[in-house]
Amino acid sequence: MDGEADEVFQQAVAELCAAPLFESEVDPEFAELFQLETIGGWLLLGEALGEMSEVQTDGIISLARELANSLDTCMDDSLTLVEGEDLRERYLAGIGERLRAYGVGYFASRNLEVEGKCHEAILAASDDGELFTSAAGRELLVDCDDYSNEMLSALRSFTKDVWRSSVPPAAP
Q1: Model's pTM, two decimal places?
Q2: Environment class of residue 110 by beta-carbon count within 10 Å: exposed (0-12), middle (13-18) or buried (19+)?
Protein backbone atom coordinates (compact mmCIF):
# COMPACT_ATOMS: atom_id res chain seq x y z
CA MET A 1 0.00 0.00 0.00
CA ASP A 2 1.10 3.52 -0.53
CA GLY A 3 -0.25 7.02 -0.26
CA GLU A 4 -3.07 8.06 2.04
CA ALA A 5 -4.03 4.59 3.30
CA ASP A 6 -0.44 3.98 4.36
CA GLU A 7 -0.34 7.26 6.31
CA VAL A 8 -3.64 6.46 8.07
CA PHE A 9 -2.36 3.01 9.01
CA GLN A 10 0.93 4.41 10.31
CA GLN A 11 -0.96 7.02 12.37
CA ALA A 12 -3.21 4.31 13.85
CA VAL A 13 -0.14 2.22 14.78
CA ALA A 14 1.49 5.26 16.43
CA GLU A 15 -1.67 5.92 18.48
CA LEU A 16 -1.82 2.26 19.44
CA CYS A 17 1.78 2.35 20.68
CA ALA A 18 1.03 5.37 22.85
CA ALA A 19 -2.24 4.05 24.32
CA PRO A 20 -2.44 2.74 27.89
CA LEU A 21 -3.12 -0.97 27.87
CA PHE A 22 -4.94 -2.67 30.73
CA GLU A 23 -5.58 -2.24 34.42
CA SER A 24 -3.57 -5.36 35.24
CA GLU A 25 -0.68 -5.71 32.83
CA VAL A 26 0.92 -8.15 35.28
CA ASP A 27 -1.85 -10.74 34.98
CA PRO A 28 -3.87 -10.03 31.83
CA GLU A 29 -7.04 -11.97 31.07
CA PHE A 30 -7.47 -14.09 27.91
CA ALA A 31 -9.04 -11.28 25.88
CA GLU A 32 -6.25 -8.92 26.93
CA LEU A 33 -3.57 -11.45 25.94
CA PHE A 34 -5.33 -11.86 22.60
CA GLN A 35 -5.31 -8.09 22.15
CA LEU A 36 -1.61 -7.90 23.00
CA GLU A 37 -0.80 -10.57 20.39
CA THR A 38 -2.94 -8.74 17.84
CA ILE A 39 -1.22 -5.44 18.61
CA GLY A 40 2.12 -7.19 18.10
CA GLY A 41 0.90 -8.43 14.72
CA TRP A 42 -0.22 -4.95 13.65
CA LEU A 43 3.15 -3.53 14.68
CA LEU A 44 4.90 -6.25 12.68
CA LEU A 45 2.70 -5.47 9.69
CA GLY A 46 3.37 -1.75 10.08
CA GLU A 47 7.12 -2.33 10.07
CA ALA A 48 6.90 -4.57 7.01
CA LEU A 49 4.66 -2.41 4.79
CA GLY A 50 6.22 -1.66 1.45
CA GLU A 51 9.10 -4.12 1.77
CA MET A 52 7.45 -7.21 3.12
CA SER A 53 9.75 -10.21 2.99
CA GLU A 54 8.63 -13.81 2.77
CA VAL A 55 9.70 -14.34 6.40
CA GLN A 56 7.62 -11.36 7.58
CA THR A 57 4.63 -12.53 5.54
CA ASP A 58 4.90 -16.05 6.99
CA GLY A 59 5.14 -14.58 10.50
CA ILE A 60 1.95 -12.55 10.07
CA ILE A 61 0.09 -15.52 8.56
CA SER A 62 1.28 -17.79 11.37
CA LEU A 63 0.22 -15.27 14.03
CA ALA A 64 -3.29 -15.04 12.56
CA ARG A 65 -3.54 -18.84 12.52
CA GLU A 66 -2.28 -19.14 16.10
CA LEU A 67 -4.71 -16.51 17.36
CA ALA A 68 -7.66 -18.22 15.66
CA ASN A 69 -6.61 -21.58 17.12
CA SER A 70 -6.13 -20.00 20.53
CA LEU A 71 -9.64 -18.54 20.48
CA ASP A 72 -11.11 -21.92 19.48
CA THR A 73 -9.20 -23.67 22.28
CA CYS A 74 -10.24 -21.09 24.85
CA MET A 75 -13.87 -21.40 23.80
CA ASP A 76 -13.69 -25.21 24.04
CA ASP A 77 -12.04 -25.08 27.49
CA SER A 78 -14.21 -22.32 28.94
CA LEU A 79 -17.60 -22.19 30.56
CA THR A 80 -18.15 -18.83 28.88
CA LEU A 81 -21.15 -18.82 26.59
CA VAL A 82 -20.29 -17.28 23.24
CA GLU A 83 -23.33 -16.28 21.22
CA GLY A 84 -23.78 -17.98 17.85
CA GLU A 85 -22.67 -21.50 18.75
CA ASP A 86 -25.34 -23.04 16.51
CA LEU A 87 -24.13 -20.95 13.53
CA ARG A 88 -20.53 -22.00 14.15
CA GLU A 89 -21.55 -25.66 14.35
CA ARG A 90 -23.54 -25.40 11.08
CA TYR A 91 -20.56 -23.74 9.39
CA LEU A 92 -18.22 -26.54 10.51
CA ALA A 93 -20.72 -29.19 9.40
CA GLY A 94 -20.86 -27.62 5.93
CA ILE A 95 -17.21 -26.91 5.19
CA GLY A 96 -15.53 -28.70 2.32
CA GLU A 97 -12.96 -31.45 2.62
CA ARG A 98 -10.07 -29.05 1.97
CA LEU A 99 -10.78 -27.14 5.19
CA ARG A 100 -12.06 -30.17 7.12
CA ALA A 101 -8.70 -31.89 6.54
CA TYR A 102 -7.04 -29.45 8.96
CA GLY A 103 -9.21 -30.72 11.84
CA VAL A 104 -9.43 -27.31 13.48
CA GLY A 105 -12.25 -25.37 15.10
CA TYR A 106 -14.51 -22.65 13.78
CA PHE A 107 -12.25 -19.60 13.96
CA ALA A 108 -9.22 -21.49 12.66
CA SER A 109 -11.31 -22.80 9.74
CA ARG A 110 -12.71 -19.33 9.02
CA ASN A 111 -9.19 -17.91 9.17
CA LEU A 112 -7.98 -20.48 6.63
CA GLU A 113 -10.96 -19.70 4.41
CA VAL A 114 -10.29 -15.95 4.50
CA GLU A 115 -6.56 -16.53 4.08
CA GLY A 116 -7.24 -18.61 0.96
CA LYS A 117 -9.48 -15.89 -0.49
CA CYS A 118 -6.77 -13.29 0.19
CA HIS A 119 -4.17 -15.45 -1.52
CA GLU A 120 -6.40 -15.99 -4.57
CA ALA A 121 -7.20 -12.28 -4.81
CA ILE A 122 -3.54 -11.28 -4.58
CA LEU A 123 -2.55 -13.79 -7.27
CA ALA A 124 -5.42 -12.65 -9.51
CA ALA A 125 -4.75 -8.93 -8.99
CA SER A 126 -3.33 -6.97 -11.86
CA ASP A 127 -0.11 -5.03 -11.56
CA ASP A 128 -2.00 -1.73 -11.46
CA GLY A 129 -2.54 -2.09 -7.69
CA GLU A 130 -6.33 -1.86 -7.80
CA LEU A 131 -6.98 -4.94 -5.68
CA PHE A 132 -9.10 -3.15 -3.08
CA THR A 133 -11.07 -1.08 -5.58
CA SER A 134 -12.07 -4.08 -7.70
CA ALA A 135 -15.33 -5.97 -7.05
CA ALA A 136 -13.36 -8.99 -5.82
CA GLY A 137 -11.27 -6.76 -3.57
CA ARG A 138 -14.31 -5.09 -2.04
CA GLU A 139 -15.88 -8.52 -1.43
CA LEU A 140 -12.65 -9.67 0.20
CA LEU A 141 -12.66 -6.65 2.52
CA VAL A 142 -16.26 -7.45 3.52
CA ASP A 143 -15.27 -11.07 4.26
CA CYS A 144 -12.32 -9.91 6.35
CA ASP A 145 -14.51 -7.43 8.26
CA ASP A 146 -17.17 -10.10 8.90
CA TYR A 147 -14.54 -12.49 10.25
CA SER A 148 -12.95 -9.79 12.41
CA ASN A 149 -16.35 -8.80 13.81
CA GLU A 150 -17.08 -12.43 14.72
CA MET A 151 -13.77 -12.67 16.57
CA LEU A 152 -14.44 -9.40 18.34
CA SER A 153 -17.89 -10.56 19.40
CA ALA A 154 -16.44 -13.78 20.84
CA LEU A 155 -13.71 -11.90 22.69
CA ARG A 156 -16.30 -9.53 24.15
CA SER A 157 -18.05 -12.55 25.66
CA PHE A 158 -14.91 -13.28 27.64
CA THR A 159 -14.47 -9.70 28.83
CA LYS A 160 -18.15 -9.60 29.93
CA ASP A 161 -17.58 -12.72 32.05
CA VAL A 162 -14.46 -11.19 33.59
CA TRP A 163 -16.35 -7.97 34.31
CA ARG A 164 -19.31 -9.84 35.84
CA SER A 165 -17.02 -11.91 38.07
CA SER A 166 -15.12 -8.84 39.27
CA VAL A 167 -18.17 -6.74 40.15
CA PRO A 168 -19.51 -7.43 43.64
CA PRO A 169 -23.19 -8.37 43.83
CA ALA A 170 -25.60 -5.52 44.50
CA ALA A 171 -26.76 -5.03 48.06
CA PRO A 172 -30.28 -6.37 48.77
Answers
A1: 0.73
A2: buried
